[in-house]
Amino acid sequence: MEEENDIKIDISKHEFVPKHELLSDKESEKLLKELGVTRLQLPKILKKDRAIHHLKAKRGDIIKITRNSKTAGKAIYYRVVI
Amino acid sequence: MIEVNKKIGKIKFGILSPKMIKKMAVAKIVTPDTHDTDGYPIKGGLMDPRMGVIDPGLRCRTCKSKMGDCPGHFGYIELARPVIHVGYAKYIHNILQATCSECSRVLLPQQKIDEYKKRLDNVLGGEIEFESIVKDVFKEAKKASTCPHCGAKQHKIKFEKPTTYIEGTQRLMPTDIRDRLEKIPDDDAYIFGLKPETARPEWMVLTVLPVPPVTTRPSITLETGERSEDDLTHKLVDIIRLNQRLKENIEAGAPHLIIEDQWELVQYHVTTYLDNSTTGIPVARHRSGRPLKTLKQRLKGKEGRFRNSLAGKRVDFSARTVISPDPNISIDEVGIPLEIAKEMTIPERATSINLEKLKKLVLRGDEYPGANYIIRPDGKRKKITEDNAKELAEELTVGYKVERHLVDGDIVLFNRQPSLHRMSIMAHRARVMPGRTFRLNLAVCTPYNADFDGDEMNLHVPQTEEARTEARILMQVQTQIRSPRFAGPIIGAIHDHITGLYFLTNSKFTRKEAEDILAMAGYTEEFPFNKDEIDGKELFSVFVPDNINIKFKSRDGNDVIIKDGKLVKGVIDDRAVGAMGGILLEEVLRRGGTNAARDFLNGITKLSVAYLDSKGFTTGLDDEDLPESVRKEIGEVLLKSEKKVKELVKKYKEGNLKPSKGKSVKDTLEELIMLELNKSRNAAGEIAEKYLKKDNFALTMAKTGARGSLLNITQMSACIGQQAVRGKRILRGYRGRTLPHFKKGDLGAKSRGFVKDSYKEGMDPIEFFFHAMGGRESLTDTAMRTPKSGYLQRRLINALQDILVDYSETVRDGRDVIIQYKYGEDGIDPSKSDRGTIDLERIVSDVQEGAKR
């Protein structure tokens, strides 16, 4: 566990890692309502995933990911932290 | 038809408790015999009549229903001593290791237990997270050496597969295990992932055994009158017999050792009853030596209940036969043999409108087009025979149904296995015809991946109005022209269609010829030209809709221009109308819709065939003929190349070869040689092509994309080229050489598998041998790849089968979990798109143009 914290490279800065953002509670509730789903039905992301390490996300938080897409240019994806 | 009167609200998974087993049982089974000497089932035996009926005519002793209606009823066996359920053996081991041997509490401090409980109560990650928490519990609790609750010292518990547990040196008997499991408090069991109401840990050790109803294990009477029992019954007989003996021994106070032996035997039989493929114990066999098919074997694998009986069933109203081509039927039709049409029926409701028609059909009966059955309003079916046809026709009124023969125009589903994509099953209109094969238009060979070397296909007849409508709207051939895989047409002209159109659009015709061709192509309007010489391009344009305006490049790189549906410049080849991406065909589909595309395809393919019928088209050995001078020229090119290779080898042997980046000198040499020889073969091909140019059929086919490639022609007429094994020049065989005909260390072209002859000239024995080496490799490769990719496909389909695009346009799986927030991230259905996009500008300009007209 300790070694993990020693990693000095912030991979979220890497060009291959898409933009990860933390959704506020209000935004999260709005999203869930729009989609008509509960957190259980969203794709998941591990809390210890290095891509969201810098966000200090809690369990149950929703992460918004903006990716480059072959078909749509930009694609937005949401994942819930577990 | 069976009416649905119950709906499944929910399903709960759990472990059967002994209490539940007894409660659902209707009989206690005590005797190992099934039938008495008179052949009647014994009460309390394995064929106890209370457990259901399997003889026709009798009524069930328990539910009073007839055979077929009675689902059967369970019985139970009271085991003299408990035994381990093999399916839970691993789990029991985990629990034993994680609980105290004295007080049966989880080997974790109370605070930790509460913590885990809380974590399990608000799982967000579904079963994956749940299972990982449970795994953590076992992992952590196993580590404790003393119990945090009572302080007792813990011993290692060893698990010997399949059903033995050893604590320290002492063997744990199922009774001890059950005692321990019983003592685990409900709250502690909870963090093992068990819900105590539905799955108490001690229920994993069996004290009573459910006996499945006789309907699940029917006995069969052989012709000799002998009875033959089901494998499950045999196994149950063993269990009861040994259980009985164990019980007697215990009651008689037999020595410990004997009791334990017998106990072990009961354990063995119960284990094999549940799973006869458990590792570590001998397989239970039938008297004949055949392994018994017990519970697990009934469910497992390809022949198991899931894959064979539930996921795949045999169906009525289906037919299968050999397929053959018919260029004269439409692409959305299928030719059906008369014999099949008489067997396949469609239930048609009698209404005031069709009553007279149906009456006539009933009167005809067996005689096509007739009917096979009438169905009265109460659901009773009556077979139409010669004797009762008149009677039934008179009886027929509104409300009846008539199962009439298949007639032209009926919607049927047509399928060829393997059904790898959705175009493998399409809806066609029936065309009943003589003969014994299904007939299909050549343009649909591509989506089915069919040819006529003996392929068979299946046909299904939808039985309700709803099903037929659905098939017609969603599955009909013309709706499937654009493939969802690459957003271009997958149905289109093939082979001769393309060469025919190529020649046609390159020729001129007299009025008589043009009239004949159009007539043969099925053109029924007035002859559209009023002149004596008619260009093939004009003939082609007859079938192109007027609103087509398009410019594209044909295969030879020249422009093809179509203006207001008239081909003004260029020739038609597979880029324009071919299956797998015909540009013109796609434009007709986009502008005119599915039916226009179907009519266009039907028109041009018939036109092409009509042209070829009048002019003829063939390819033969003479298409590969080259004059002596050209052959010599090719020979010189190859010889020069061989010399160059020799030079390279010399340079290498002298050590003067510079290695290219990332390669050894030897690899560099190989690379350069391969390059040189490939170049020379291409050069040879080009020389041959230059000579062949004019009206060579093989070359025409390659150039128009109808069949074959330039490489094929090169190999046939000029030079076969380098043979390879494992992607390298041939280097296996003897020490330092491939064949004894060469010197050791010869790295030249010929000694390493370069074939400079052509297929037409023929190879010399050495070349032939190398060619066979390369040929064998590609043959074995395909033979191994096919089943591998098939299994991969199966796994993919299984993983993806319940994923769908929801009404909210999100992609979801069977649990409603979101997989994509928009299908393909752009929300576009490729099969309804314009090359994978939606080109708004084009749509707007199309509309504006339409408004101008």
Describe this structure in words.
In chain A, strands 1-3-4-2 form a four-stranded mixed sheet, with no helix packed on it. Chain A has one domain (15-81): Eukaryotic RPB6 RNA polymerase subunit (Alpha-Beta Complex), CATH 3.90.940.20. Chain A starts with a helix and ends with a strand. Chain A has helices at residues 2-6, 25-35; strands at residues 19-22, 44-45, 62-69, 73-81. Chain A is globular. Chain A contains two helices and four strands; from the N terminus they run αβαβββ. Chain A has 82 residues and is an alpha+beta fold. Chain B has six domains: 20-72 and 212-307, RNA polymerase II, clamp domain (DNA Excision Repair, Uvrb, Chain A, Irregular); 83-203, no CATH class; 318-480, Barwin-like endoglucanases (Beta Barrel), CATH 2.40.40.20; 496-615, Enzyme I, Chain A, domain 2 (Orthogonal Bundle); 622-780, RNA polymerase Rpb1 funnel domain (Topoisomerase I, Chain A, domain 4, Orthogonal Bundle); 804-850, no CATH class. In chain B, the strands form ten sheets. In chain B, strands 9-17-10-16-15-18 form a six-stranded mixed barrel. In chain B, strands 11-14-12-13 form a four-stranded antiparallel sheet. A three-stranded mixed sheet of chain B has the order 1-2-6. In chain B, α2 (89-98) crosses α4 (126-143), α12 packs antiparallel against α13 (389-395) and α22 (665-692) packs across α24. The longest helix of chain B has 36 residues, at 765-800. Chain B starts with 17 loop residues before the first helix and ends with a helix. Chain A binds chain B through residues 35-37, 39-44, 59-60, 69-72, 75-78, 80, 82, and chain B through 124-126, 129, 808, 810, 812, 815-819, 821-822, 824-828, 836.
In short:
Chain A has 82 residues and is an alpha+beta fold. Chain A is built from two helices and four strands.
Distance between the termini of chain A: 18 Å
Portion in strands of chain A: 25-35%
CATH third-level topology of the largest domain in chain B = Barwin-like endoglucanases
Average pLDDT level of chain A: 86
Total number of helices of chain B: 26
Order of helices and strands of chain A: HEHEEE
Spell out the CATH superfamily of chain A: RPB5-like RNA polymerase subunit
Return residue spans of chain A where pLDDT drops below 50 for at least 5 consecutive residues: none
Number of helices of chain A: 2
The biggest chain-chain interface is: A-B, 21 and 20 residues
